[in-house]
Amino acid sequence: MTQIVPAPNACKPAHAGSVIARALLVCGLFIAGATAQVPPSPAELAAYSGLHAAAARGDAAEIARLVAGGAQVDGRDARLRTPLHVAAHRSRLDAMRALARAGADANALEADRYDIVTIAAVANDLPVLHLALELGASARNITSRYDGTALIAAAHLGHHEVVRTLIRAGAPLDHVNNLGWTALIESIVLGDGGPRHLATLKALVAAGANRNLGDRSGATPLALARSRGYREMAAILAAAGAR
Length: 243
Hints:
Blueprint: H1 20-33, H2 42-47, H3 50-57, H4 60-68, H5 83-89, H6 93-101, H7 116-123, H8 126-134, H9 150-157, H10 160-168, H11 183-189, H12 195-207, H13 221-227, H14 231-239
């Protein structure tokens, strides 16, 4: 299962006027999101048959044979994963290509509303991400229970090369999820202020992300960085004209 480890300051108050309840709420939401994306478990993998099993193994020839025999290319498992979702989780590039040739929906969402682009973004899997985009998956999809994007997920985790790839693919820079956060804000409030999140922040600022778009309380990215003691982040933002 994809595991996301909370950053040291993830439960730190968002700004000087925050109350303890708000800090705990943010922390709780963050931890709840850690297991939102669910790859197939060993038990599920063992129980798969047909296209899901072939996708999990990366057996492109078997995929072609099954499709020719009438198998449903976008069939769903118990968590509404298609074979393409399974292939993406398992980094089975040949299987992904075979499924796409058979007409698989590259933008399908599973039970928790993840698509293959967001699966790759969370896993920091650049080969899967590049192939997903090549196969017609969109970096603009609204995904997850948080009404977010792959870019927000990658920024949260400090996957800066993924962030750059998604930016080049046209991901919306200033999308606000249902927590009231943009990718820029998540790189700060759910980051650790270290090199990965610094590189993420730099990429977003360089791409033109709105550095003055605040959270629901009105706290701007610059204020959020300063409140956490992230001096390098604050310096990057201030140099870019953030207020």
